[in-house]
Amino acid sequence: MDAWLIWLILAVGLGIVEILTLTFALGLLAVAALVAALLGAIGLPLAVQIIGFAAAAAAGLYLVRPLMQRQLHRGPDARSGAAALVGRSALVLREIDGDKGRIKLSGEEWSARCIDEDLVIPVGARVDVMEIDGATAVVYPREALPGGATEHTS
Question: Which portions of this protein are annotated as coiled-coil regions (predicted)?
Answer without folding.
Answer: none
